[in-house]
Design brief:
The protein has helices spanning 2-8, 19-24, 71-89, 119-129, 149-152, 155-158, 178-185; strands at residues 45-48, 95-100, 112-116, 133-134, 137-138, 141-143, 209-210. The two termini are 22 Å apart. The chain folds into two domains: 1-36, no CATH class; 39-210, 2-Layer Sandwich (Alpha-Beta Plaits). The strands form two sheets. It has a four-stranded antiparallel β-sheet with strand order 2-3-1-6, covered by helices on one side. The chain is globular. The protein is of the alpha+beta class. The structure holds zinc ion (ZN) (2 copies). The site of one zinc ion has 8 residues, from helix 2. Residues 154, 156-157, 162, 164, 168, 170, 172 line the site of one zinc ion (ZN). One of its GO terms (biological process) is mRNA splicing, via spliceosome. Residues 12-40, 148-175 form the C3H1-type domain.
Length: 233
């Protein structure tokens, strides 16, 4: 019996534990999910929920003033963010994985997953991030159950063939350019990396980190979940 339960843990057959939370660390039902979200008490991975705010979050390809934004500008904005958080999080230990989601559904938009080499490094980062703000918004950080990102990532997206778009339930990982990857990850570059096609323009690092105090909180855009796709996992 115990063996059977172990074999179905975190799969569709498991009626108790939520497979989405288990594999991807995020589930659209959140705390209202009918299945259990077993929040780890320690993990090498942290989830910083909804942290990256893309400049075209209201309408893809258009900024808040209604002006079109080029793909290069969007990529540059993202890489600026990526480098900034990489450098901040590196203070707590060696980063194995830093993934930022390109998904659009509420529970995944702008999610940042950082996996450290050691659990205590993640714990130190979590302690330091709690109560802090980034770009005027509070940082929401938790331990995440995700340690195998191959299981959590949408392979079709990497092959540019995911027909679920931004509402896919698997991670659509935003890619950084080859130059920035080399700069940040150096020779320990992981194999099978897919590179962004646009040319990288590194701009200066923004001073978005804040340790507390009163800030204007920018609400996230809440999207309807109508197009949300259930997917067997
Ligand atoms: Zn769930
Ligand atoms: Zn997908």
């Amino acid at each position: 019996m115990a063996e059977h339960l172990a074999s179905i843990f975190g799969t569709e057959k498991d009626r108790v534990n939520c497979p989405f939370y288990f594999k991807i660390g995020a589930c659209r039902h959140g705390d209202r999910c009918s299945r259990l979200h077993n929040r780890p008490t320690i993990s090498p991975t942290l989830l910083l929920s909804n942290m990256y705010q893309r400049p075209d979050m209201i309408t893809p390809g258009v900024d808040a003033q209604g002006q079109p934004i080029s793909a290069e500008t969007l990529q540059s904005h993202f890489e600026d963010f990526f480098e900034d958080i990489f450098e901040e999080l590196s203070k707590f230990g060696e980063i194995e994985t830093l993934n930022v989601c390109d998904n659009l559904a509420d529970h995944m938009i702008g999610n940042v997953y950082v996996q450290f080499r050691e659990e205590d490094q993640a714990a130190a980062a979590l302690g330091a991030l709690q109560g802090r703000f980034y770009s005027g918004r509070p940082i929401i950080a938790d331990f995440s159950p995700v340690t195998d990102f191959r299981e959590a990532t949408c392979r079709q997206f990497e092959e540019e063939s995911c027909n679920r778009g931004g509402y896919c339930n698997f991670m659509h990982v935003k890619m950084i350019g080859r130059e920035l990857r080399r700069k940040l990850f150096g020779k320990s570059e992981p194999p099978n990396v897919v590179y962004a096609r646009s040319t990288l323009v590194i701009v200066s690092i923004r001073k978005d980190w804040a340790s507390g105090g009163v800030h204007r909180i920018v609400p996230l855009r809440y999207l309807s979940s109508d197009q949300y796709n259930e997917k067997q996992i």
